[in-house]
Write a structure and sequence with these properties.
Nucleoside Triphosphate Pyrophosphohydrolase, 2 helices, alpha+beta
Length: about 140
């Protein structure tokens, strides 16, 4: 009988926040991987926390946007083995629609935060373009 190696899997949550008039909220990452690139607000799920609660917490910490966890709608799970250069990361993505005048403010590991038109997104970190596409398929 051989001993199998188990890979370390990290659990994260991301949030696609869109406006009623076709914008998505992105943060500029403050550190590697992908420092300086645009990404969805999100991060690690803390011990004892659900991914939905983590998504709401990360949204508040990184972008200054506050939502109750139950306001977030699950979009899906992304678990490609090479989606993150640091190792195996599995994320559960959520979506939230807000009014277009909602203010956002960079915090935590975000250098800046910006509302981008869904029709004109910058290059995105990780597989966040795929997540946005899945979240907005019926809203664009």
């Amino acid at each position: 009988m051989s001993i199998e190696a188990f890979e370390t899997i990290r659990y994260t949550a991301d949030v696609v926040v869109t406006t009623t008039d076709g914008y998505v909220l992105l943060i500029e990452r403050g550190w590697d991987p992908h420092a300086g690139q645009w990404a969805l607000p999100g991060g690690h799920v803390d011990p004892g926390e659900t991914s939905r609660t983590a998504a709401a917490r990360e949204l508040a910490e990184e972008a200054g946007v506050y939502a109750a966890p139950e306001e977030l709608t699950q979009v899906g799970t992304w678990d490609g083995p090479d989606r993150d250069p640091r190792g195996r990361y599995v994320t559960v993505a959520y979506q939230l629609t807000v009014i277009s005048t909602l203010p956002a403010e960079a915090g935590d590991d975000a250098v800046s935060v910006r509302w981008w038109p869904l029709a004109d997104l910058p290059p995105l970190a990780f597989d966040h373009a795929d997540i946005i596409a899945a979240a907005t398929v019926s809203t664009v």
